[in-house]
Write a structure and sequence with these properties.
Shape: rod-shaped
Oligomer: single chain
Number of strands: 20
Distance between the termini: 198 Å
Helix content: 25-40%
Structural class: alpha+beta
Low-confidence stretches: 372-427
Mean pLDDT: 80
Strand content: 25-35%
């Protein structure tokens, strides 16, 4: 009975054992395998490679190991090795660490790419497109667009003309692309710095407040402004915040590498953006002269723009004003050409203030008006009491009305004389 049960169970038990421990495929020359260190000696390493025989790494096949590598070795350490001889005469598998180093490097880089972790390498050359870098015994490439910082500043297209400090410079990067089959590795220093800056910016933003004045360094200039490094994080000075005067190009005001103070204008914690200003470190021109502005006062200004409705001007203090078309000439001007026949952009004019716009911080100016028509128009109101004098003398004008009886006396005399004449006729 028992024998029958054992007979029935034996095949299934063997099948389970075979499935749980499938036979190992024979090792092939040039194959890369992993092994665990079982023993360390002057003759080399003894590895457990998961096969019926152990693997041996002779000392001559581990010359690439540095002293640090040797010191870090211990039983149980994982080693990547290349199969030189799957089985020698003694049945031992001969391995090489040196020949596997390149493959191990690819594996390290693949893991770093999967974990999105930075890797450190050394610049060993350059070409027209960027820098050639070696990391983990794998040669890769950093395109020029992905080079930032000291490496970018020292970069030259040819290795022969390399600036001091470029070749041999250590550089930290992230991995963009890896293709072992095509032996292709593309790295990016920019990605690392962007990640570091994002973390530093987040920390910095928590401590910043609007109105702070910080030390910064110009690290980039574009058509719309300048980028400033403010201690590991970056901020932007918009073109409108570079100067109180009009700016046609940020490059006219700042240059890359210049260190300067900047004023914090706005902080966007959600999008990690810091808006900076250069002009707000100095008083606004309007504030400097606002107390001196009054209608009728003479002022010099330069024409900055001409439109159909007048000419924009800017005073020597930087305050903007408008000379309306009706204040340019006594005759009617209907086009820019007609205005330009009288004044031109860049021309300095002696003008009169006719309006002070405190809210918009602008001036209304004139070429033809004295600017003091208002006091002249109000003069009749001031002399109103003198005009009312005739009203006070009204009683004198009424005097003739009071003498009316005297004026009517002759009428009575006439009637009496007429009656007398009638009486005379009757008699």
């Amino acid at each position: 009975m028992t024998n029958k049960i054992e007979e029935n169970n034996s095949p299934s038990l063997m099948e389970e054992l075979l499935n749980s421990n499938p036979p190992k495929k024979p090792l092939r020359r040039g194959e890369i395998i992993d092994g665990l260190v079982m023993n360390i000696s002057d003759e080399g390493l003894l590895l457990n490679i998961g096969h019926k025989s152990e693997g041996v790494v002779p000392a001559r096949e581990m010359r690439s190991f540095t002293k640090v590598d040797h010191d870090n070795l211990e039983e149980g350490s994982e080693i990547v090795a290349l199969v030189i001889n799957p089985e020698d005469d003694d049945g031992t598998t001969i391995l090489s660490v040196d020949k596997a180093r390149g493959e191990r490097g690819w594996r390290v880089l693949e893991k770093a790419k999967d974990d999105d972790k930075p890797v450190e390498g050394v610049i060993i050359g350059s070409n027209r497109g960027g820098a050639v870098v070696q990391a983990e015994d794998v040669q890769g490439f950093i395109p020029l667009s992905q080079l930032i910082g000291p490496a970018r500043e020292l970069f030259v297209p040819k290795k022969e003309n390399a600036k001091d400090g470029f070749i041999g410079m250590k550089i930290t990067f992230k991995i963009f692309e890896l293709n072992r089959r095509r032996n292709r590795a593309i790295f990016s220093e920019k990605a690392v710095l962007q990640q570091e800056r994002a973390l530093k910016k987040q920390e910095l933003i928590e401590t910043l407040k609007v109105g702070d004045v910080l030390k910064g360094r110009i690290v980039g200039v574009s058509t719309f402004g300048a980028f400033v490094d403010i201690g590991g994080a970056d901020g932007l000075i918009h073109i409108s915040e570079l100067s109180w005067d009009p700016v046609s190009s940020p490059a006219d005001i700042v240059t890359v590498g210049t260190e300067m103070d900047v004023y914090v204008v706005k902080i966007d914690k959600e999008n990690l953006k810091i808006a900076l200003s250069l002009k707000r470190l100095t008083p606004e021109p309007w504030e400097l002269i606002k107390d001196e502005l009054e209608n009728g006062k003479k002022i010099s200004a330069k024409v900055t723009k001409i439109t159909t409705f007048g000419a924009f001007v800017r005073t020597e203090h930087g305050v903007e004003g408008l000379v309306h078309v009706s204040e340019i000439s006594d005759r009617e001007l209907g086009s820019v050409e007609e205005i330009e026949a009288i004044i031109n952009v860049g021309q300095s004019l002696d003008l009169t203030i006719v309006n002070v716009d405190t809210e918009r911080k602008r001036l209304g100016l004139s070429m033809i008006s004295s600017g003091i028509p208002a006091p002249e128009e109000s003069a009749p109101e001031e002399s109103a009491p003198e005009e009312s004098a005739p009203e006070e003398s009204a009683p004198e004008e009424l005097a003739p009305e009071e003498s009316a009886p005297e004026e009517s006396a002759p009428e009575e005399d006439d009637s009496k004389s007429e009656e007398a004449e009638d009486d005379e006729k009757e008699s």
